[in-house]
Amino acid sequence: MNLPNRITLARICLIPIMMFFLLVDFKFYPEPIHWGSFQLSINHLIAAVIFLLAASTDGIDGYIARKYNMVTNLGKLLDPLADKLLVSAVLISLVELGRCDSWIAIVIISREFAVTGLRQVALLEGKVVAASKWGKIKTVTQIVAISLLLLNNFPFQFVSIPLDDIAIWAAALITIYSGIDYFVKNKELLELHNA
């Protein structure tokens, strides 16, 4: 249990805390933040901060593991699992809150688990499916889109730009494309496994 794996576990532990603040409506919270027509509850602000904190640890644990030669099999298992749990939990919560269309959540979550399955097939063959450029772009767009949805489109609501809606659509499209890209580039794994 080295430092990168502890960071990854901390990311997983932050998920239920984030969901607690996002989904539980307590009457004793302070009044929501008001700024003209903009409104954001304190508990949703806390959930957004926790999400951003958890998402920021994604790159940190991998960087430390590679730089200090601390890559472990446990880390290879936990890191992608933590990412998928975080994204899945927050997207399902946003659907529950009526801030994200269910089909978008289903598309994104399905892609995440499909690529995880592909990686498992690769491991059975003794190969590693490395993160692609499109996979990294997908991660960034998902974090941006989810953050905007959690923050009620702050600050773009003030200039009447629905960037939260644009970003989540972009995240869904890039997620689909990156998933196709993974499967096309690794089709020999599927052909070998079906042989």
UniProtKB/TrEMBL annotation:
PROSITE patterns: CDP_ALCOHOL_P_TRANSF (PS00379). GO terms for molecular function: CDP-diacylglycerol-glycerol-3-phosphate 3-phosphatidyltransferase activity. It is found in: Cell membrane. Pathway: Lipid metabolism; Phospholipid metabolism; phosphatidylglycerol biosynthesis; phosphatidylglycerol from CDP-diacylglycerol: step 1/2. Its EC number is 2.7.8.5. GO terms for cellular component: plasma membrane. Keywords: Cell membrane, Lipid biosynthesis, Lipid metabolism, Membrane, Phospholipid biosynthesis, Phospholipid metabolism, Transferase, Transmembrane, Transmembrane helix. Its main location: membrane. It is an enzyme of class 2 (transferase). The chain crosses the membrane at residues 6-24, 45-65, 143-160, 166-184. It catalyses: a CDP-1,2-diacyl-sn-glycerol + sn-glycerol 3-phosphate = a 1,2-diacyl-sn-glycero-3-phospho-(1'-sn-glycero-3'-phosphate) + CMP + H(+). It is a multi-pass membrane protein. PANTHER family: CDP-DIACYLGLYCEROL--GLYCEROL-3-PHOSPHATE 3-PHOSPHATIDYLTRANSFERASE 1, CHLOROPLASTIC (PTHR14269:SF62), CDP-DIACYLGLYCEROL--GLYCEROL-3-PHOSPHATE 3-PHOSPHATIDYLTRANSFERASE-RELATED (PTHR14269). Belongs to the CDP-alcohol phosphatidyltransferase class-I family. This is CDP-diacylglycerol--glycerol-3-phosphate 3-phosphatidyltransferase. It comes from Paenibacillus typhae.
